[in-house]
């Protein structure tokens, strides 16, 4: 077979009802598609079996993680071109291939059959080892949340050092005046501290403390006394060593603890940076109530969280299968309005919402560049499949932020004392 690419392109365009926006290079060395476009490299016909068995994002993701599919050329451009197929068309979320699966048009059925013949006999191979197997039981129990966090974060601190760089901050940086990723992450941490109004001796609870970056910055630069909680043992080990190396063990305590089990309030301030995405809709009011109860009157919460766009029919919202199976098991994104409303229902006074969507696209591109630069070492430190997961997830996320499919916001909320002022400066955007 020396024309697999042409046959594959023809069949794909028949299914899509539109020209394929990328070039195809097949396992037999043949190529077809628009000249000069990024090239989707199909290294093995097994990839087609995966797509036919699970049409849409999950089938393609399995082929990518297994190394059966790759992109030659600009990965971001390829993802942007493919976004209309796998993300949105006509304002409704759909997969073109999944839509065809149930089509009655004989021409489309014939195209699907052609792909089946080209790909070889079903069923496909087993999913890659990096995929989370199907979970059972209620969402967001403490046990299930701990397992989900371990899947994402306990993949090796060496790997995260290569991707995140010296800052070891795994959330959106703030590119106000910064020229490097490290400067932008430092500026983000400082922005959070200023919004919280931290001063010498304040008690800060850092929920989802990661590798200790926020805790170190708040203690070293502002004199805060910090308690950081995480469900990742690898993060806790790393953070404790880092704190000891900084000589800050008298100011910072790191615990492997669920935020629902924190009982030693009140705190003057709480930072939650990139953690609330793990909480889930069924637990979000509990999360808001818990943080409210842990603050002193007048205490501030800085909630830094990714948000999705609202759906016309919220009951139709579905978690992205690739993200759920390979990246953030049980993670859920909520619209900004729902998050603000839930915080207010819990008793918080929301004082500021700061949208920094464009900053996350730039941050993710910096992480992808770090990963690609250190690719052999990164793959050795975890697995080649997991490195491919992170490359696809971060690049696709960058495109999502840049296309305004998702955003990220810093919400400053106060446990108001009941009367009088909130303590937040009138010219709050100065954050002095």
From TrEMBL:
Gene3D superfamilies: Vaccinia Virus protein VP39
Entry superkingdom: Bacteria
Gene Ontology biological-process entries: methylation
UniProt GO MF annotations: methyltransferase activity
Annotated segments matching region Disordered: 124-143
Enzyme class: transferase
Family, similarity comment: Belongs to the CFA/CMAS family.
Name of this protein: Cyclopropane-fatty-acyl-phospholipid synthase family protein
Lineage, uppermost ranks: Bacteria, Bacillati, Actinomycetota, Actinomycetes, Kitasatosporales
